[in-house]
Amino acid sequence: MWQNIERDISQVIGEEFNIKHKQLVTGGDLNLCYWLSDYQHNYFIKLNDKSRLQQFETEAYSLEKIKQLNTIACPNVITTGTTLDKSYLVLEYLPFNHAGTKNWMLFGKQLANMHQESSHGQFGWQHDNYIGNTLQPNDWQSNWRTFFAEQRIGWQLQLLAEKSIILGDIEHIIRVCHDALLHHQVTPCLVHGDLWQGNIGFSDNSVYIYDPACYYGDREVDLAMTELFGQMPDEFYQGYHETYPLENGYETRKLIYNFYHILNHANLLGGVYVEQSKSNLIRILALH
């Protein structure tokens, strides 16, 4: 397997690459990850079953789209491919370090710039991709309320229903979420889609985002998720709001947007996240 990966990397970089150092990298729970080095080049590789190649290809595509904007850094994509029984994604290796106040302020400003400079005509993405291991549908839609209520909330509720986990009448919940976004005017922009602290790193005074689940949507979905599993430092929000202030009603919309991620965790992990989904749904239904 490793010889095939060495050949692939060598072909891409235009010179011979032979693995002299290989170190398991912990922290992720979806893939097996390694730091590979020949003491001149350093790469980060994700490995999974061969059937997961499409997930790596969609991730690579999202990273390339983020990088094209030149507003916020992300790891360079080296290659994707398969071996006899594995699929892989090779990225540049980045040694992350501790972030100071200025780093978080910079991150807020750069994320705001990404949202401001990536307007699009419709909501969706060039193809379906993945949020964790869950397929994320991205059919183009001109109406944000319809897109999010149906392709985010409705989709996750349907997946739960297929597991015999019924939270309520799906069409009614979709309608409530749709109506909660009724008076919010949204310009489609590129969103990371899975923006929590585990997908952010700092290296050499630069901010990097990775593991994206990109689509063109409401910028507030990214801000909302930064608050879902513990908030970012205050300096991040200060930097963002100074650059691109949020509109009134965000606190209500945040409840809808984060409901999507809680539902996804319920689908992936069950247990406490099913109960959290039920609790959030009570709050959402109270909006109607």
Structure characteristics:
288 residues, alpha+beta, Phosphorylase Kinase, domain 1, Aminoglycoside 3'-phosphotransferase, Chain: A, domain 2, two-stranded antiparallel ribbon, 9 helices
Beta-strand percentage range: 15-25%
Assembly state of the chains shown: single chain
> What number is the mean pLDDT?
96
Radius of gyration: 20 Å
Helix content: 40-55%
The CATH homologous superfamily of the largest domain is named Aminoglycoside phosphotransferase (APH), C-terminal lobe
Quote the distance from N terminus to C terminus. Answer: 55 Å
The outline comes out as globular
| The number of domains | 2
CATH hierarchy, class of the largest domain: Alpha Beta
Tally of contiguous helical segments: 9
Major sheet strand order: 1-2-3-5-4
DSSP strand tally: 11
InterPro entries: Fructo-/Ketosamine-3-kinase, Kinase-like_dom_sf
Keywords: Kinase, Transferase
Protein name: Fructosamine kinase family protein
Pfam families: Fructosamin_kin
